[in-house]
Amino acid sequence: MQSRKKKELRQNLTAFGFLAPSFLGLVLFSAIPLVFSLFVSLTDWNYIQGIGNWNFIGLRNFIDLWSDEWFLASLRNTIIYTVVTVPIGLFLALVLAYLIDRFCTEKLGGILRISMYMPQICNIVASAAIWVMLYSSYGPFTQLMKALGWDDPPKFLADYQWALPAVMLMSIWQSLGYRIFIYSASLTGLPKDVFEAAELDGVNGRQRFFYITMPLLKPTTFFLTITGIISSFKVFGSINVMTQGGPGSSTYTLVYYIYKSAFTYYEMGYASAIAVILFLILLGITLVQWKHNNSN
Amino acid sequence: MLVNADLFADAGIELPLEGWTYAEFAEAAQKLTSGEGQDKVYGMYWNLNGGSFAYSTGFIGATLGRYKVYTDDTCTATNFDNEVRKQSIQLILDSYEQGWAPTYEEEVADDLSFATMLLEGKSAMSMGINNLRIINDLENYPHDFETAIVPAPVPDESYLEDWWNYSDRPGAGDLICINAKSEYVEEAVDFVIWYIKGGMAPLAKGGRIPLWKGFDANSIVEVLCEQEGVFNPESVKAYMSVDGTSAYEQLKTSVDSKIDDISKEEMEAILYGQKTVDQACADMKTRADELLANELQK
User: How many structural domains compose chain A?
Assistant: First the structure.
């Protein structure tokens, strides 16, 4: 009896020992900052005044946000960014993954997938800097448009209407490889018998894609949608390198504005309030995913 | 301002070491502009991309001195509707229309910089005294012409008599702070005094120019002009003879960076042709003053 208890205790201690490092990391780098920023969002803390020098101001930061045009622009741009990049990115990835799966040899498919995955592992600052060059008036986009007869092509990053789409295009390109990878993995795991049965029934390629492949990939699409929305809401690096929020505030996004408020204006309380709003949005999206997973 | 002295000499324009007006500046810039397309050399490169620091301190500051942002020492209202500011912005717009400076759109779209414009011989003049440090760096920024330091122009002759009294930042040193809680405050003060009285001379090579009146100007000329043909010695001497005292007097508030961003945003609205100069300057002032009022209330 005694030895069983001892054994159990040892087993438990071992388990806790293995859990401890990541638990500690979670507490130190997620839980404590989360609670701290929730608290700071209710104060007027300015970074320069040092820790502890804050006044509790209730929900004032959260009220002020809605009359702040920079915040409203950030929220609007982030939503546009997400609504555009996620569906287009997913659709392109699905089509490409499907084409690779159907028409490429194993070797060629592998090469294609890896080469398209490259942007994902490439540093965001480096790829953004390259895209700045691509968008310049001597870059391929402008030259191509001119060659196609467009006299005065847009100045992309230097244009109120084009700057955000230009950054969105880069983001679609960057996450394409990762999405193709996930889709490809799912495609190979799809049950073969369904396709064989469909073939016997005389299904054509289009029907096969839209009525069999796509529905079967629904869980994958759902997973990629949720993670895509979350990462779109967190967009920062490309904005900071390519546009710094400009022209005007046409490419301000939530995280970029959090960064500006916190580290340019030193308004930690206000920045935390925006972070809390972002947290609530992402929490909502995660809950939807959670509910969806449980219902499946 | 920093200018390509060789292009000035070729065009037969004398270096304006005693100051010059907007009209004289525009005429020179037009004369210094040549070529077309990729080979075009612009008279001026405004260096407004990524904020208008150089323009604000160098160009507006040359006339309004420490009052370039705030109307007076109380810092309760901004000076954005000042006629000098409007005139200088109009000058920028004229430069776009007359083709002697790349437009702001081009600056942003092509990611232009001081290094790619002035140092690659694509513009004859530019701003940004902080670029002194890269001019002597021939290894990373190779170029084979002499750079001269000249004063920024002023709106008209009435300002010429005493422009140096207002000159906002004739020096390019750093501000040194001493932590009040330090155990070695006196030693730090001793160090700062040694530093500003001569210790910092070698740093001129990296673009740190002292403001102290008693500084031996020749020691700076020697350091900056160590490599022959990089800096124009006459212009460095003239630059060092300007009394930089006024640069000590910077007006600061806790919302400076926000006001900077407001002025940048409104300035962009003008440069992209979304607003008129009057409209944007008025909006700049309204928005910034509102911010100041809110801050004061807090």
Answer: 1
For B42, the token pair is: 């612009």
Question: What is the nearest CA distance from B275 to chain A, expressed in angstroms?
Answer: 12
**Window B:256-285, CB contacts with A under 8 Å:** 257-258, 261, 264-265, 268-269, 272, 274
Quick one: which H or E segment has residue B45?
strand B42-45
> Chain B contacts of A135, Cβ < 8 Å?
109
Confidence band, pLDDT 50/70/90 cuts, at residue A23 = very high
What's the CATH code of the domain at A178?
Answer: 1.10.3720.10
Sorted by where each starts, the structural domains of chain B and their CATH numbers stand as 2-168+249-297 (3.40.190.10)
The span from the CA of B148 to the CA of B230, in Å, is: 9
Over range B261-287, report the average pLDDT: 94
Residue of A nearest to B104 (CA): A158
Domain with A131 in it? 62-295
HSE value, Cβ hemisphere, 13 Å, CA-based, for B210: 23
CB contact under 8 A, A159 and B50: no
Q: Of B44, B60, B46, B54, whose CA–CA distance to B8 is shortest?
A: B44
In sequence order, the β-bridge partners of residue B231 are B147
What pLDDT sits at residue B231?
Answer: 92
Among the listed residues B222, B206, B204, the one whose alpha carbon sits nearest the alpha carbon of residue B137: B206
Separation of alpha carbons A56 and A42, rounded Å: 6
Whether A264 is in a domain gets the answer yes
For A156, left (φ over 0), alpha (ψ -120 to 50), or beta?
left
| pTM over cut 0.95 | no
The answer as to whether A56 is a domain residue is no
Domain membership of residue A18 (yes or no) is: no
